[in-house]
Amino acid sequence: MSQDSAAVPDAARKLAARRRREIVAVLLFSGGPIFESSIPLSVFGIDRQDAGVPRYRLLVCAGEDAPLRTTGGLELSAPYGLEAISRAGTVVVPAWRSITQAPPPAALDALRRAHEEGARIVGLCTGAFVLAAAGLLDGRPATTHWMYAPTLAKRYPSVHVDPRELFVDDGDVLTSAGTAAGIDLCLHIVRTDHGADAANALARRLVVPPRRTASDLGHQRYLDRSLPEEIGADPLAEVVAWALEHLHEQFDVETLAARAYMSRRTFDRRFRSLTGSAPLQWLITQRVLQAQRLLETSDYSVDEVAGRCGFRSPVALRGHFRRQLGASPAAYRAAYRARRPQNGAPEPALKPERAERPERERAALGAGAGFSASALAGHGLAEAAEAAKPTSDAYAPRMPETAVGRAAGRPVLPGQRERPVG
């Protein structure tokens, strides 16, 4: 789903007569982060008509009984309760305090009623979990903070989670990625309601770009090594930490299972139940991430990078790197350096490496990632290749073959639409 898709689905409900789009209800909960909570308050709650920004009417609503405590122990007192949502044509859930906790049933009922009566429902960052708990994201595309995207996709499999987008507009339900992406979505709402001039004027007042895309984030976003926060108290957390500290060594999933004192089958099942990802896929992703960092921060050759990331050969590194990031290691480094000039001038770009023959890449997929012959015998090359793919089509939408709208002659960082972790 494109970030700027403003087409309203045929199923969108007509706005009830008592509701108006310019009346914005912001739903606050105790424990919510103050930054995300302040974004819609600042965008929709301050009169900036002198700058050409049409005025909204803001209703700050408590989603549960007071007091509402936020970042730093601050106490908030919301002037309205859930009943005020019945007047709003736009309802914003800025963030939810913990993805492991269920939102209050009364707040979920209020959101469902608002949606049934045609209100536009917005979830910023982890606010998407509240919308999902209310059933408003079923069968829809959505996004959230990249760190929690695997958990959202696993907990609500009917939601089409795309962590690559800054925000997703599905007509009457909109979601944004983490933190600053909430500003992007709020500006998008102003642009949808009142046009580009109003949104640009507001962006100038906020001193932010009027319109960002995922490719504007400076450079290729990292495939992150983080896992859902609920793994922190699980016995597997120690095994995961060991694996991240020893990526330079050649070990396989059987090694991790042994460290967890589990059979391979039990370990696979436990790991997948916690993360939504197969351990083989996760391990390959971490090795690629480590290679990505070394290519950006060191002068090691591609062969040396392969060895320092636990790959058995440079061929294996190239195969997995291209499969996950859409470019060879050398091409990635060249584009990164071209976009990150040093001493006032770009470094000369390295020549892209010659593409390896497909059969060599296939042969390296399992063995090259640090897996033993016994592991290959248990998995097979086909299974290793399959495990390197995302486990959920809903979580990892198909990547485009080529980027669109790139300026001719300008260095472009490969793989800006990477596969997500897990």
Structure description:
With 422 residues, the chain is an alpha/beta fold. It contains 16 helices and ten strands. It has helices at 34-45, 105-116, 127-133, 149-155, 181-194, 196-206, 236-245, 253-259, 264-275, 279-297, 302-308, 314-325, 329-339, 358-367, 373-379, 381-387; strands spanning 20-28, 57-62, 68-69, 75-76, 88-93, 120-123, 141-142, 160-161, 167-169, 173-176. It has a six-stranded mixed beta sheet with strand order 2-1-5-6-10-9, with helices on both faces. It has a two-stranded antiparallel ribbon with strand order 3-4. Strands 7-8 form a two-stranded parallel sheet. Strand 9 and strand 10 form a beta hairpin. Helix 10 (279-297) packs across helix 11 and helix 12 (314-325) crosses helix 14. The chain is globular.
Q: Report the order of strands and helices.
A: EHEEEEHEHEHEEEHHHHHHHHHHHH
Spatial ordering of strands, largest sheet: 2-1-5-6-10-9
Strand content: 5-15%
Name the structural class: alpha/beta
Average of the residue pLDDT scores: 76
State the helical fraction.
Answer: 25-40%
Question: pLDDT under 50 segments (min length 5)?
Answer: 1-11, 218-225, 343-367, 371-422
Show the helix and strand layout.
Elements: E1 20-28, H1 34-45, E2 57-62, E3 68-69, E4 75-76, E5 88-93, H2 105-116, E6 120-123, H3 127-133, E7 141-142, H4 149-155, E8 160-161, E9 167-169, E10 173-176, H5 181-194, H6 196-206, H7 236-245, H8 253-259, H9 264-275, H10 279-297, H11 302-308, H12 314-325, H13 329-339, H14 358-367, H15 373-379, H16 381-387
Parallel strand pairs: 1-2, 1-5, 5-6, 6-10, 7-8
Antiparallel strand pairs: 3-4, 9-10
